Amino acid sequence: MPFVNIKKHYIAFGMLLFVLLFLFNSKPAFQCQFSQEPPAYLPTIYGITPTYSRLAQKADLTRLSQTLMLVKNFHWIIIEDSETKTKLVENLLKESGLKYTHLNVKTHKAKHSTASGVEQRNAALDWLKGHLNQIEDKKGVVYFMDDDNTYSLKVFDEMRKIKRVGVWPVGIVGGMRVEMPLVTDGKISGFNAVWKPFRPFPIDMAGFAINSTLFLDYPEAKFSRKVQSGFQESEILKYFTTKEAMEPLAEFCTKVYVWHTRTQHPSILNVKKLKHPPVPDDHIEV
Ligand SMILES: *[C@@H]1O[C@H](CO)[C@@H](O)[C@H](O)[C@H]1NC(C)=O
Questions:
Q1: Catalytic residue among 233, 244, 247, 285
Q2: Is 148 within any annotated ligand binding site?
Q3: Sheet of strand 74-80, all strands in order from the earlier edge strand to the far edge
Q4: Where do the domains of the chain lie, and which CATH numbers do they carry?
């Protein structure tokens, strides 16, 4: 009998050891599910997007918002050109789950001015300055985004490297396959633009981003309705940088990570003129 007891003890001890070894070995894998590595610090990207009502608006905003859902630490400032905020944009933003600020300001266009988005982007900058003054971590990047452009996720990775102002190529813009800064020995030496190449900064709005703290350092920096078309980019950039001081990103401006795509104006039949008018669809949001 004592022999059997001893054997039982050995078996019990062996099993305990086995269970302990199992727990110990599987601990890191077990832990992984609950506590992840602390994520690397990512400065916030403030995307500023003016928008206006039109038939393709929801399609364009759906495409853009679903890109933005994949961007970490992103804050979308969307400004409607309207007297009041629309339900369409409000619902789209709510349903997106994105961090956003929804603003509106109606453009009262001067007769000769064709500039679009001036009042809307300035309203966003005013909001941003107030916001940054209230929060602890002011680090971030400001990017002016059209609602119908096409953005690779890579462009957001690039702009988080910015110290002051970063630049990169833009595809399909200004009558060219690609508009880009020219880089010599790691510095911007010129631009390849053919449309108004005499502009101080002949680049598209999608081709640069600005350190957000600079807007606190230069609170007077804003867009202007007084400048001729194509000069809005130069108008804002002149406050912060020079050609030589810009930081060439996207592998020294050799990669295209953003495209100035334009959504075609849809042509819809005038149903009143049809002999057999279709079923009414006014109650459907498109
Ligand atoms: C922006 O500038 C501030 C102040 O110089 C700096 O601390 C920060 O690292 C810069 N970059 C970003 C992305 O905020």
A1: 233
A2: yes
A3: 99-104, 74-80, 44-51, 140-144, 208-211, 165-167, 247-248
A4: 44-259 (3.90.550.10)
